[in-house]
TrEMBL record, chain A:
rRNA processing listed as a keyword: yes
Protein name as catalogued: KH domain
Domain S1 motif residue range list: 82-160
Primary subcellular site in the record, as a coarse category: nucleus
InterPro entries hit by this protein: Exosome_cplx_N_dom (IPR025721), Exosome_RNA_bind1/RRP40/RRP4 (IPR026699), KH_dom_type_1 (IPR004088), KH_dom_type_1_sf (IPR036612), NA-bd_OB-fold (IPR012340), S1_domain (IPR003029), S1_RRP4 (IPR048565)
Organism: Popillia japonica
One GO process term, biological-process aspect: regulation of gene expression
GO CC terms of this entry: cytoplasmic exosome (RNase complex); nuclear exosome (RNase complex)
Automatic annotation (TrEMBL), chain B:
Pfam families: RNase_PH, RNase_PH_C
Domain Exoribonuclease phosphorolytic: from-to ranges: 21-152, 156-221
Protein name, per record: Putative exosome complex component RRP41
Major subcellular location class: cytoplasm
Superkingdom, natural source: Eukaryota
Subunit comment: Component of the RNA exosome complex.
Species name: Popillia japonica
Gene3D superfamilies the UniProt entry points to: GHMP Kinase, N-terminal domain (3.30.230.70)
InterPro entries listed in its UniProt record: ExoRNase_PH_dom1, ExoRNase_PH_dom2, ExoRNase_PH_dom2_sf, PNPase/RNase_PH_dom_sf, Ribosomal_Su5_D2-typ_SF, RNase_PH
Length: 296, 255
């Protein structure tokens, strides 16, 4: 029997906000008039009524030249070309896969935009269409890049690089896409002994470091035989809990913040990181280290 | 107690409010982590939870998907323990189905439906404690949850009830006790900023002469509710935004 089970009353709820003392920008709420002048262009999160530009979401104003938009603090993933995303196959159709990427509509991965086993320069035959379920089937996780965005807002993905493809052993963490900091590299090799992919769509993949020689198979192999040792599993679980804690505290996620959180978390057991007090403590400690970095 | 004494001689109601006072409203955004948006609201003793999923791909019946508008799917349910007499089923009865439809109608007025073709938005509301004015509380909670989910709406949709006491005095935000003792209840859903009425419902007939004053009271109630909700949304955004350092919203952060 597990000896210590934590049960608490709703009144003992812990407040996760670790607000910094800083200038608060003007906050717009739906229906609020942004400007009465009609020389501005309306961007996302705004609409025009009777010549006034009004906000349609709650958030902060973003102004680029004449374009005004309001960015909400939480929303579904809006894809842009070049983003790296993690997705889960929901459907196998003719010549394409449907992928759930936390976006408004399911994304599309065409058979012609994946690397098939047997080299780059290979014609796609009818056989490949029949074999599609052998490559990727429903429930499989993939990493991919956004190739383009269709007019209805759905995304077209591609995996035409050896970096992308099917994911094998690891842990998926889902957070809000707005918490992922934009940066050039999405694949991080953390010195603590794990790989991490920060998908722009808020899906984060943590995997152990595998010593596989990348071959021309195009990322359709799932090495499920390799046994992951217990310390490695603990590292991954700790990373997962750290990311979850940072997300709970609504802190931005990028390689440095994850790494700092990991280092600060070492004084706790892995499972203790699920306790609200530990989460807040971890958030504050990480926040402090990041602010030291920016000021120093 | 007779119907005539809903407001006492000194102008106080059964629970000590004046005729134009709302019950205390407390609300919280982002109460769940799994849905895209969620909210909790307390209006007096009426407690409602709302969760919003979407906009997402239409699941189930594909044929329902529309090329020009988003499908809005609402589900109203009341917890079996929410009323003084235990309910047999939380949803699916006639009253719940009707309220689901009304809620959908109210939300369609505010959501920019044409922005999201081929998708669907699910709104689930659950009454935890019913003490009069459950439908208005549901509408208000759903609005907050939509805002939390970052779904564009034209403006706040607010709802309020009003009734008539002592045969000529209008009063706002009717509690359960007053609902039983008193007479007709007028429920309105409005867009308070543009003063448009989206939905209006009366539980009983009353004289046409009173309609104007009761309607005005209810609209006033909607406006006051909107101000309270707006304050709650602002506080929530400040809390969340300060932790992220406003980085996700384009404000420059030093590295």
């Amino acid at each position: 029997m597990p000896s210590n089970i934590q049960i608490r009353l709703a009144t003992d709820r812990v407040n996760y906000t670790i607000a910094l003392n800083q200038r608060i920008p003007k906050i717009y709420t739906p229906g609020e008039v942004i400007t009465k002048q009609n020389e501005f262009m309306r961007g996302h999160g705004t609409y025009e009524e009777n010549g006034d530009l009004k906000a349609s979401v709650a958030g902060v104003k973003e102004e680029i030249n004449k374009l005004i938009s309001i960015r909400p603090l939480k929303c579904r993933y809006n894809g842009e070309t070049g983003d790296v995303v993690i997705g889960r196959i929901t459907e196998v159709q003719q010549k394409r896969w449907k992928v759930d990427t936390n976006s408004r509509l399911d994304s599309i991965l065409l058979l012609s935009s994946v690397n098939l086993p047997g080299g780059e320069l290979r014609r796609r035959s009818a056989e490949d269409e029949h074999m599609m379920r052998k490559y990727l089937q429903e429930g499989d996780l993939i990493s991919a890049e956004v190739q383009n965005v269709f007019s209805d807002g759905s995304l077209s993905l591609h995996t035409r690089s050896l970096k992308y493809g099917k994911l094998s052993q690891g842990v998926l963490v889902k957070v809000s896409p707005t918490l992922i900091k934009r940066s050039k590299t999405r694949f991080h090799n953390l010195p603590v002994g794990a790989n991490i992919i920060l998908g722009n769509n808020g899906y984060i993949w943590i995997s152990p470091i595998m010593n596989v020689e990348e071959s021309s198979v195009g990322g359709f192999v799932q090495n499920l035989e390799e046994v992951i040792s217990k310390p490695e599993r603990e590292t991954i679980s700790r990373l997962r809990n750290c990311i979850q804690a940072l997300a709970q505290c609504k802190m931005m996620l990028y390689d440095t913040s994850v790494l700092y959180a990991y280092e600060e978390s070492l004084k706790y057991d892995v499972k203790e990181l699920l306790i609200p007090e530990a989460i807040v403590d971890l958030g504050i400690l990480t926040q402090e280290r990041i602010s030291m970095l920016t000021s120093g | 107690m007779s119907r005539k004494e809903l407001i006492s001689k000194v102008g106080l109601r059964l629970d000590g409010r004046r005729a134009d006072e709302l019950r205390r409203i407390r609300c919280k955004l982002g109460v769940f982590s799994e849905p895209d948006g969620s909210a909790y609201i307390e209006q007096g003793l009426t407690k409602v939870l709302a969760a919003v999923y979407g906009p997402h791909q239409v699941r189930g019946n594909r044929l329902k998907a529309q090329a020009d508008a988003v499908i809005i799917n609402c589900q109203f349910s009341m917890a079996v323990f929410s009323t003084s007499e235990r309910k047999k089923r939380p949803r699916g009865d006639r009253k719940s189905t009707e309220l689901s439809l009304h809620l959908r109608q109210a939300l369609i007025a505010a959501i920019e439906v044409e922005k999201y073709p081929w998708s669907q938005i699910d709104v689930y509301v659950e009454v935890l404690h019913a003490d009069g004015g459950i439908f208005p509380a549901c509408v208000n909670a759903a609005t907050l949850a939509l805002i939390d989910a970052g779904i564009p709406i034209k403006e706040y949709v607010c709802a309020c009830t009003a009734s008539i006491a002592n045969n000529n005095q209008a009063m706002v935000d009717i509690s359960h006790e007053e609902e039983i003792l008193g007479g007709p209840t007028l429920t309105i859903v409005a867009l308070p900023m543009s003063e448009k009425i989206v939905l209006m419902e009366m539980s009983q007939r009353f004289h046409l002469d009173h309609l104007k004053s009761v309607l005005e009271k209810a609209l006033e109630g909607c406006k006051n509710t909107k101000n309270i909700l707006d304050q709650a949304v602002q506080n929530h955004i400040v809390d969340v935004g300060a932790s992220t350092g406003w980085a996700s919203t384009g404000e420059k952060v030093k590295r």
